Amino acid sequence: MATGNGTETGQGLRLIAPPLLYAILLLAVPLLTILAYSFFKDGYLTIVREFTLENYLATWADPIFRTILVRSLMVAAMVTAVTVLMAFPVAYFLSFVVAPERKALWIFLITIPFWTSYLVRVFLWKVILGFNGVINSGLKANGLIDEPLKFLLYNTGSIVMTLSHSYAPFAILPIYVALEKIDRSLLEAGRDLGESRLMTFWRVTLPLAMPGVVAAVLIVFIPTIGDYVTPTVIGGGKIPMVANLIQAQMLDIDNKPLGSAVAISAMAVVTALSLAFLFLNRRFLKVRA
Prior knowledge:
The chain is about 75% helix and about 0% strand. The protein has 12 helices and 2 strands. The protein is mainly α. It has helices spanning about 1-35, 55-60, 65-95, 100-110, 120-130, 135-140, 155-180, 185-190, 195-225, 230-235, 240-250, 255-289; strands at about 40-45, 45-50.
């Protein structure tokens, strides 16, 4: 038995070794490099490899960083809320209403946006919302407006709309998987006990679907904060987020240590909020149980 277990363990290690090495090279090494840079000093067109905490002190003492970080968190929270609220009905319809033989087709249609570049999708929204875009041109052609509606673009609402559309498939799929795993007999038992469809959904379906909802929230919330394309294109650079600040420090100002400190600080805040969300979700599910 021991030999068999050892053989199985060795086979398992050999199986996961290539992707593990790939993950270490492409994920861990860059993150460790940024972490190391955050403790170095910035010199003229070079990096002085002397340990210092000045970058973190400058980052958190800067009111601009705090303002942009809070704005980024608020935008990410709004995008997450809108995306998940829109994704849940779609996933529910796909899981409970669509016939089994047609589900593959629906999943195929949901993944079609992945076929195009993210940058292309962002520019398409600018074409739709722009001063001479599809909406304004259509309204002017029908005589409903005399001048373009300026509030459609270059504001927080347009950024939230664009990001929500871009990340919708990422939210739909994990919720759908969680709904598919629900034993339908539990729902029938709830209705047999006299519960309405609404109460059955609230007391049975939603708690069992929470793993998918939690996954959708994290999948949308975390990368949204790191997005710098949409605030630049759709926000017109007027509503910068923390990723734009990092980009400016890294490339425009060429202060990689300070940019690294900003990045690590933002990552720490996002990690803390994500862990807090997971903890509160567990407490919620325990109370419901």
